[in-house]
Amino acid sequence: MKHWLAVIALLPALAFAHSFEKGDLRVRHPWTRATPPGAKVAAGYLEIRNTGKKPDRLLGAATPLAGKVEMHVTTHEDGVARMREVKVMEVPAGQRLELRPSGGHLMLVDLARPLAKGERVPLMLRFETAGELAVELEVEALGAHHPRH
Q1: Pairing assessment for the beta strands 41-50 and 120-127 based on DSSP bridges
Q2: Residue 148 pLDDT level (bands cut at 50, 70, 90)
Q3: Residue ranges of the domains in the chain?
Q4: Among 50-59, 75-84, 115-124, which is the least confidently predicted range?
Protein backbone atom coordinates (compact mmCIF):
# COMPACT_ATOMS: atom_id res chain seq x y z
CA MET A 1 0.00 0.00 0.00
CA LYS A 2 2.80 2.44 0.87
CA HIS A 3 4.35 1.72 -2.51
CA TRP A 4 1.21 2.89 -4.37
CA LEU A 5 0.87 5.98 -2.20
CA ALA A 6 4.41 6.97 -3.16
CA VAL A 7 3.61 6.48 -6.85
CA ILE A 8 0.40 8.52 -6.55
CA ALA A 9 2.29 11.29 -4.74
CA LEU A 10 4.75 11.47 -7.64
CA LEU A 11 2.12 11.64 -10.39
CA PRO A 12 1.80 15.45 -10.44
CA ALA A 13 5.58 15.82 -10.83
CA LEU A 14 5.68 13.15 -13.53
CA ALA A 15 2.83 14.80 -15.41
CA PHE A 16 4.84 18.00 -15.69
CA ALA A 17 8.20 16.33 -16.32
CA HIS A 18 8.87 16.85 -19.98
CA SER A 19 12.51 16.47 -20.89
CA PHE A 20 14.60 14.56 -23.39
CA GLU A 21 18.29 13.62 -23.38
CA LYS A 22 21.00 12.58 -25.77
CA GLY A 23 24.65 12.47 -24.78
CA ASP A 24 25.52 15.70 -22.98
CA LEU A 25 22.37 17.51 -24.13
CA ARG A 26 19.19 17.87 -22.07
CA VAL A 27 16.14 19.40 -23.75
CA ARG A 28 13.71 20.73 -21.15
CA HIS A 29 10.00 21.34 -21.67
CA PRO A 30 9.67 21.91 -25.41
CA TRP A 31 6.37 23.71 -25.99
CA THR A 32 4.27 25.74 -28.38
CA ARG A 33 0.95 27.54 -28.26
CA ALA A 34 -2.41 26.39 -29.56
CA THR A 35 -3.22 28.04 -32.88
CA PRO A 36 -6.49 29.50 -34.17
CA PRO A 37 -8.20 27.97 -37.22
CA GLY A 38 -6.39 28.88 -40.42
CA ALA A 39 -3.07 29.75 -38.76
CA LYS A 40 -0.13 28.69 -40.91
CA VAL A 41 2.69 29.28 -38.40
CA ALA A 42 3.50 28.51 -34.77
CA ALA A 43 6.57 29.13 -32.64
CA GLY A 44 8.33 26.41 -30.66
CA TYR A 45 10.24 27.06 -27.45
CA LEU A 46 12.58 24.96 -25.32
CA GLU A 47 15.75 24.97 -23.29
CA ILE A 48 18.83 22.98 -24.29
CA ARG A 49 21.39 22.35 -21.55
CA ASN A 50 24.85 21.20 -22.56
CA THR A 51 26.39 19.42 -19.57
CA GLY A 52 29.49 18.47 -21.54
CA LYS A 53 32.91 20.01 -21.97
CA LYS A 54 32.49 20.61 -25.72
CA PRO A 55 30.06 22.92 -27.51
CA ASP A 56 27.41 21.63 -29.88
CA ARG A 57 25.25 23.37 -32.45
CA LEU A 58 21.59 23.04 -33.33
CA LEU A 59 21.55 22.69 -37.12
CA GLY A 60 17.84 22.35 -37.72
CA ALA A 61 14.52 20.73 -36.86
CA ALA A 62 11.60 19.05 -38.59
CA THR A 63 8.05 17.98 -37.80
CA PRO A 64 5.47 16.14 -39.89
CA LEU A 65 2.92 18.83 -38.91
CA ALA A 66 4.70 21.66 -40.78
CA GLY A 67 6.16 22.12 -44.24
CA LYS A 68 9.40 23.30 -42.64
CA VAL A 69 10.91 24.48 -39.37
CA GLU A 70 13.04 27.61 -39.35
CA MET A 71 15.33 28.79 -36.55
CA HIS A 72 14.84 32.45 -35.66
CA VAL A 73 16.47 34.99 -33.35
CA THR A 74 14.79 38.20 -32.27
CA THR A 75 16.66 41.44 -31.69
CA HIS A 76 15.24 44.59 -30.11
CA GLU A 77 16.36 48.00 -31.38
CA ASP A 78 14.76 51.32 -30.47
CA GLY A 79 11.68 49.53 -29.14
CA VAL A 80 11.21 47.53 -32.34
CA ALA A 81 11.56 43.74 -32.38
CA ARG A 82 13.09 42.24 -35.50
CA MET A 83 13.12 38.56 -36.29
CA ARG A 84 15.61 36.90 -38.61
CA GLU A 85 16.32 33.34 -39.64
CA VAL A 86 19.64 31.74 -38.67
CA LYS A 87 21.22 28.56 -39.99
CA VAL A 88 22.71 27.36 -36.65
CA MET A 89 22.24 28.01 -32.94
CA GLU A 90 25.21 27.57 -30.63
CA VAL A 91 24.88 25.44 -27.49
CA PRO A 92 28.03 26.34 -25.50
CA ALA A 93 29.75 23.75 -23.30
CA GLY A 94 28.48 23.83 -19.72
CA GLN A 95 25.76 26.34 -20.61
CA ARG A 96 22.26 26.47 -22.02
CA LEU A 97 20.44 27.81 -25.02
CA GLU A 98 16.97 29.17 -24.21
CA LEU A 99 14.35 29.54 -26.91
CA ARG A 100 11.48 31.57 -25.45
CA PRO A 101 8.80 34.11 -26.40
CA SER A 102 10.29 37.44 -27.55
CA GLY A 103 13.62 35.69 -28.14
CA GLY A 104 15.03 32.83 -30.17
CA HIS A 105 12.49 30.25 -31.30
CA LEU A 106 11.69 27.55 -33.82
CA MET A 107 9.16 28.70 -36.40
CA LEU A 108 6.87 25.94 -37.65
CA VAL A 109 5.92 27.14 -41.13
CA ASP A 110 3.00 25.95 -43.27
CA LEU A 111 1.14 24.06 -40.55
CA ALA A 112 -0.87 21.09 -41.78
CA ARG A 113 -3.64 21.85 -39.26
CA PRO A 114 -4.32 23.93 -36.16
CA LEU A 115 -2.59 22.90 -32.93
CA ALA A 116 -4.87 22.12 -29.95
CA LYS A 117 -4.07 22.65 -26.28
CA GLY A 118 -2.97 19.43 -24.61
CA GLU A 119 -1.65 17.65 -27.68
CA ARG A 120 2.01 16.91 -28.34
CA VAL A 121 3.74 17.76 -31.61
CA PRO A 122 6.59 15.43 -32.69
CA LEU A 123 9.77 17.35 -33.44
CA MET A 124 13.18 16.06 -34.56
CA LEU A 125 16.12 18.25 -33.52
CA ARG A 126 19.39 17.86 -35.46
CA PHE A 127 22.67 18.66 -33.69
CA GLU A 128 26.14 18.82 -35.16
CA THR A 129 27.72 16.49 -32.57
CA ALA A 130 24.84 14.78 -30.74
CA GLY A 131 22.99 13.93 -33.96
CA GLU A 132 19.21 13.64 -34.01
CA LEU A 133 17.02 13.87 -30.93
CA ALA A 134 13.26 13.26 -31.08
CA VAL A 135 11.25 15.47 -28.72
CA GLU A 136 7.63 16.53 -28.40
CA LEU A 137 6.33 20.08 -28.18
CA GLU A 138 3.57 20.25 -25.58
CA VAL A 139 0.79 22.50 -26.86
CA GLU A 140 -0.12 25.11 -24.24
CA ALA A 141 -3.09 27.48 -24.32
CA LEU A 142 -3.42 30.08 -27.06
CA GLY A 143 -1.56 33.15 -25.75
CA ALA A 144 0.50 31.29 -23.12
CA HIS A 145 3.63 33.20 -22.08
CA HIS A 146 5.66 30.36 -20.56
CA PRO A 147 5.38 26.65 -19.96
CA ARG A 148 4.05 25.25 -16.74
CA HIS A 149 6.75 23.62 -14.67
Answers
A1: unpaired
A2: low
A3: 19-140
A4: 75-84
